[in-house]
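// run 5 | inverse folding | seed 20
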């Protein structure tokens, strides 16, 4: 279901037709804020299979960081070169990275924000900073810096793509539309400071996605044939 239809259903569920332009086009007049916030709540709260993904970044020689703005959890990192060699990086703590006490090749997860971050100026580490970009400077630090052109391959859990234009879709709007609409209604109850309403929506969302989480847990564990004591 595209965003335009999700917006219509949200208006019907909530009764807040003032958050759309009219009942014909259902164009946004504030509804998308609650839908996007509801999606973020779902991403952070519920584990589903589609949260897992891979991110690729081509790195030039002497690269020492990779930006991953939509990544929630980094699970594994690999470097691949042009002849097919593939190396899994060893994860270390940020303290070990700073001290130089590390196993090579390694990586650490870090907030790469720099201060001050002035819009429109050139930063020697991250290039030209555009408005809002400095808030997304999360990623990994590499040790040592790359000595050849490589592709960095990151496995982890990622936020679903944000719904911004009428035709946009993602896994929540396509497969779990009711949960997305209810999550938007939950965000609306927060703006009312209605704790009971928030709790009611959370219980409804949990019931809606309970089976999905069970499927995910089963998929993660069905290959384990022996538990260690």
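// decoded
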């Amino acid at each position: 279901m595209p965003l335009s239809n999700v917006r219509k259903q949200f208006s019907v569920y909530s009764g807040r037709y003032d958050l759309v332009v009219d009942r014909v086009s259902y164009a946004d007049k504030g509804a998308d804020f609650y839908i996007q916030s509801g999606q973020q709540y779902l991403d952070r709260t519920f584990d589903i299979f589609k949260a897992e993904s891979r991110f690729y970044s081509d790195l030039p020689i002497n690269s020492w960081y990779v930006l991953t703005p939509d990544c929630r959890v980094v699970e594994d990192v690999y470097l691949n070169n042009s002849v097919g060699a593939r190396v899994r990086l060893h994860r270390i703590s940020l303290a070990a990275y700073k001290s130089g006490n590390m196993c090579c090749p390694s990586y650490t997860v870090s907030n790469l924000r720099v201060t001050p971050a002035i819009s429109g100026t050139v930063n020697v580490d991250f290039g030209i900073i555009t408005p809002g970009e400095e808030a997304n400077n999360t990623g990994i630090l590499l040790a040592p810096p790359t000595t050849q052109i490589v592709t960095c391959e990151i496995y982890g859990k990622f936020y679903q793509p944000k719904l911004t234009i009428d035709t946009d879709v993602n896994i929540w709007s396509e497969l779990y539309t009711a949960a997305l609409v209810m999550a938007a209604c939950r965000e609306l109850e927060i703006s009312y400071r209605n704790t009971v309403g928030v709790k009611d929506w959370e219980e409804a969302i949990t019931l809606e996605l309970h089976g999905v989480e069970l499927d995910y847990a089963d998929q993660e564990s069905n290959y384990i044939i022996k538990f260690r004591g």
